TrEMBL record:
One Gene Ontology molecular-function label: metal ion binding
Cofactor: binding comment: Binds 2 calcium ions per subunit. Binds 1 heme b (iron(II)-protoporphyrin IX) group per subunit.
Residues noted as binding Ca(2+) 1 in the record, renumbered to the chain: 96, 99, 101, 103, 105, 117
Localization (cell): Secreted
Disulphide linkage map: 64-144, 97-102, 150-355, 229-259
EC number(s) from the headed UniProt entry: 1.11.1.7
Protein name per UniProt: Peroxidase
Gene Ontology CC: one annotated term: extracellular region
Lineage, broadest ranks: Eukaryota, Viridiplantae, Streptophyta, Embryophyta, Tracheophyta
Keyword Acetylation: no
Residues annotated to bind substrate: 192
Major localisation: secreted
Keyword list, A-Z: Calcium, Disulfide bond, Glycoprotein, Heme, Hydrogen peroxide, Iron, Metal-binding, Oxidoreductase, Peroxidase, Pyrrolidone carboxylic acid, Secreted, Signal
Residue ranges annotated for the Plant heme peroxidase family profile domain, each copy included: 54-359
Length: 362
C-alpha cells in the first residue's frame, strides 16, 4: 500500500512539473537516446563565457578538425579499460568549472612557490583521470600544436564520457583558454561537500551563477562512478534523510558491512542498480531511500529548504525518476551552462602544451 501511494505521488508530481515547464523546453534538435545529438537552441551562434571568451561549436573545425575525433576515441579506450573512468573524467570538468570558471586550473601540478588545486580537501586522493588527459593532450599536440586548450579538452571528454556510458550527447562549446594560476582556497570553498544539505547545495551553485535546477540535474551525474566509505559514512547514521522518510535498512546495512570490513577504505557504486550506465536510475534510487552520499539522498528529503526551492527540488527529482528523456534534456542544458563559467574579466589565458604546467614552465 505504501509503495502504491509513493508511486502515485511521484507520477502526479512528475506530470505536474512537466506540464508547468513544457513551454520552456526546446527539444527541436534533442533526443534522449545514447549518443544522439542534443541541442538547446544553440543553432551555431556563439555564446559568451565571460572574461572576453567567446565560445562556439565550430572553433576547431579548421584549426584542428580531428580534435573531437581524437578525444572521443581516447575516452572510449580509457572507459573500456576502466569503466569508472567515465565518471572520473566527468568529475574533472565539474571540479574545474566550479573554481574560477572552466579554465583547466584543476590540472595544474604543485610546483615550488606554486600550490594548485589537486591537494584541496574535495580533490585530494579523490580526483583521478589525469593520466588519461595527459595522453589525449599529447595526441592533440601532435595533431595540431598549441591549438586545443586543456579546458576545452576537459569539456569534450566529459561529454564523451556521458555518451560512452549510454547518456545523451550535445555540441560542446569550445574556445576556452587555460589559466596560468589556480586557487586552492577556491577549491576548498566552492566545491560542495558530500555531506551538504539541499540549502547548501543550492547556494554553492548560485554562488557560481547556476540555479537550483542545474544543481538537481547535474547531481544526476552520480548515476555513474564510485565513492569511498569516508565520503558517505554520515549516511550510515541517517544524514540526508528527513525524520519522516522511510529508509532502506537493507541498503544501509550492506554499506555498513562493506565499510566496516574495509576499515573505511572500500569503494561503493553511487548507483547500485545500473552502476556503469548513464540513466535516470539515480533519481529512482533517491525516491527509494537508496542514495549513497548524504548530499544525494538530501535531494529527496528537502524539507529544510523553504518555499520555491523545496518545491522545485522535490518536483525535479520526481520528474527525472519518471522520465529519463526530461533528465537527459536538462542535464545537457546544465552542462552547457556550467561550461560557460569563466574566469573574471581581465584574466588572461593561454593554450598549454602540457596540461600540468603553464607554458613558461614547460
Amino acid at each position: 500500500m505504501a509503495h502504491s501511494t509513493t508511486l502515485a505521488l511521484v507520477v502526479l508530481m512528475a506530470l505536474s512539473f512537466s506540464a508547468a515547464s513544457a513551454t520552456t523546453v526546446n527539444k527541436s534538435c534533442i533526443t534522449g537516446s545514447a549518443g544522439a545529438a542534443v541541442s538547446i537552441g544553440y543553432g551555431g551562434a556563439r555564446a559568451s563565457a565571460g572574461a572576453g571568451v567567446s565560445l562556439g561549436a565550430d572553433v576547431y573545425r579548421t584549426t584542428c578538425p580531428r580534435a573531437e575525433e581524437i578525444v572521443r576515441a581516447a575516452v572510449g579506450r580509457a572507459v573500456a579499460a576502466d569503466p569508472r573512468m567515465a565518471a572520473s573524467l566527468l568529475r574533472l570538468h565539474f571540479h574545474d568549472c566550479f573554481v574560477n570558471g572552466c579554465d583547466g586550473s584543476v590540472l595544474l601540478d604543485d610546483k615550488p612557490f606554486f600550490i594548485g588545486e589537486k591537494t584541496a580537501v574535495p580533490n585530494a586522493n579523490s580526483l583521478r583521470g589525469f593520466e588519461v588527459i595527459d595522453a589525449i593532450k599529447e595526441e592533440l599536440e601532435r595533431e595540431c600544436p598549441e591549438t586545443v586548450s586543456c579546458a576545452d579538452l576537459l569539456a569534450i571528454a566529459a561529454r564523451d564520457s556521458v555518451v560512452v556510458s549510454g547518456g545523451p550527447s550535445w555540441e560542446v562549446e569550445v574556445g576556452r583558454k587555460d589559466s596560468r594560476t589556480a586557487s586552492l582556497q577556491g577549491a576548498n570553498i566552492n566545491l560542495p561537500a558530500p555531506t551538504s544539505g539541499v540549502a547548501t547545495l543550492v547556494q554553492r551553485f548560485r554562488n557560481v551563477g547556476l540555479s537550483a535546477k542545474d544543481m538537481v540535474s547535474l547531481s544526476g551525474a552520480h548515476t555513474i562512478g564510485k565513492a569511498r566509505c569516508t565520503s558517505f559514512s554520515a549516511r550510515l547514521s541517517g544524514v540526508g534523510v528527513s525524520s519522516g522518510a522511510s529508509k532502506d535498512q537493507t541498503f544501509l546495512q550492506s554499506l555498513q558491512q562493506l565499510c566496516t570490513a574495509s576499515a573505511g577504505s572500500a569503494l561503493a557504486h553511487l548507483d547500485l542498480a545500473t552502476p556503469a550506465t548513464f540513466d535516470n536510475q539515480y533519481y529512482i534510487n533517491l525516491l527509494s531511500g537508496d542514495g549513497l552520499l548524504p548530499s544525494d539522498q538530501a535531494l529527496a528529503s528537502s524539507s529544510a529548504v523553504a518555499g520555491a526551492d523545496q518545491d522545485l527540488v522535490a518536483s525535479l527529482v520526481a520528474t527525472y525518476a519518471f522520465d529519463a528523456s526530461v533528465f537527459f534534456q536538462d542535464f545537457a542544458e546544465s552542462m552547457l551552462r556550467m561550461g560557460r563559467l569563466a574566469p573574471s574579466v581581465g584574466t588572461s589565458g593561454e593554450v598549454r602544451r602540457n596540461c600540468r604546467v603553464v607554458n613558461s614552465s614547460s
